[in-house]
Write a structure and sequence with these properties.
With 120 residues, this protein is α+β, with helices and mostly antiparallel strands. It has helices spanning 3-16, 20-30, 47-60, and strands at residues 31-39, 42-45, 65-68, 73-75, 78-86, 94-102, 108-117.
Amino acid sequence: MSDVQQRVERYLAIWNETDPAARRAAIDELWTENPVYVDPLGVAEGRDAIDAFVGAAQQQFPGLVFRPAGTVDAHHNVARFTWELGPEGGEAIVVGFDVAVFTEDGRFDRVHGFLDKVPA
């Protein structure tokens, strides 16, 4: 498994982490000091805002889990990957893909999210 693939899996694990302290520790480890996350639903600038954004997603979709859907495509300091959100072992109700920009030390600096499938 590539280093980028592992980073993406750790990134998705943040979206599943329900313990606020553990989630924040993972954000602090994996993201730069001034990161930005943006998707069609909003913009989160900074670690505090990203933490709040993830917490809001968990409240909106309680009991569902994010999981990778395929392999990561990466070059230089950029990666794109597809993910799914659904019940453990069940069909995804949301599908999207993210484009991540990393710093030289491998931390997430920018993530641009896109939604391909959303609930009606």
